[in-house]
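To: structure desk
From: M.T.
Subject: fold request, one chain
Message: Could you run this one when you get a chance? Sequence is below, nothing fancy, just the single chain.
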Amino acid sequence: MSLNTSLLISILMVLVIIRALRRFLDLPTRLPRLNGLLNYIWGPGVVLGLLALALGWKGNQTDQLDELYMLFVLASILVVLARVRHYRPARTLLLALAPYTVYSAIELLLAVTGRELMKQYDDIFETSKGFALIWLVTFIFIARSQKKTLEAERLQREEETKAKERIEAQNLELERLVAERTATLTTQAHELQQALTELRTTQAQLIQAEKMASLGELTAGIAHEIQNPLNFVTNFSDVSSELVGELEEEQQRPDRDAALEAELLADLKQNLQKITHHGQRAASIVRGMLEHSRASSGERQPTDLNTLADEYLRLAYHGLRAKNKAFNATLHTDFDQNLNKVEAVSQDLGRVLLNLFTNAFYAVQKRKEAASEADGYMPTVSVSTRRGPNDTVEVRVRDNGIGMPEGLQQKIFQPFFTTKPTGEGTGLGLSLSYDIVTKGHGGTLAVESKEGEYTEFIISLPA
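Reply: Done. Structure tokens follow.
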């Protein structure tokens, strides 16, 4: 084989080896400058080939030039591997090439200086060369396996890094969403707080309006009720004035009748007692009206339920009569005279009773309007007191009015729910009454009704 052909094959082999080495060690990234120098690895081979042609070398001399070039390439590869020895596969390749490089250097040296020695120990050199080649191939496979392992680890680390980045990105997104949600909730909470404040203000206004409405219901009844004691006060005052005049005349007579004077004085004293009684009755009615109109003190005092129920029954009835002169109803009372006084806020319970009586009169009035004269219907409202079970006292308010369907009875104590037409009821009366009885006095307020026949409210209070 000619020199040019031998060197050309060697140069091509070197280029293939260098290309594989570059890819294996990723030299463009790890050693970009040295990688650039490897582009000219073919240069020394060309120079040696031209030198041999110029000197006219042939045979063994050209083989030695070829071996010298390959030794140069091996040395260059060893330098490259030494530069990247921190990379484990590079260290393995360095270990793989070391025996073969040493053998090549010895073979070249003996070829130049002692070829007879190589012929004498040809078997030993062939064995050593085979061992060096086996060593080289074995460690190349080991390096390749190491590279695959490292590549797998690198890919795993990259996946872990990407996963970590995705998690961090998700965490940032979640933090952003949480921040936005928190801001939204804070805004909503502020808006709800404002709405709650406005609702409480509106509720207070509605409660006050309901109280004033009940006060209006009382006004006409109070005017009628207070008229009776005032008439008695006026009449007994007139009679007392006449008695005083008769007494003065009797005292001016020369023959005074002591028995007549004593009788006149006794009558006068009796009239004054009646004036005091009816004056106190008028004052009681006025006091009740004032208590009903102002805010409750919340202080419980011994309260006579019989007196309270009777008083508010008549006030409610006369209040309705003042608005509708044609309305008449039978009032029926059945009070337990042995009923003990209960600890209660009388003005609050008065509001409850007034609301129940007003509703009862409304119910019987509606039934009366719908009934014909042939029916013989008589509106009747009853109130009774008695001892209840478990050491309680009960106040029952019953009417024979229009009644309620069973479905409505479950909603009757809900705020703003009313069976009355629009404009005739706010739906707060029974709701407030329920709160006063249950929350304010620890009792119960229940309803029993049958549509078209009757309705009965039962107030149960601790005795």
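Reply (cont.): Residues 301 and 346 are 8 Å apart (CA to CA). Let me know if you need anything else for the meeting.
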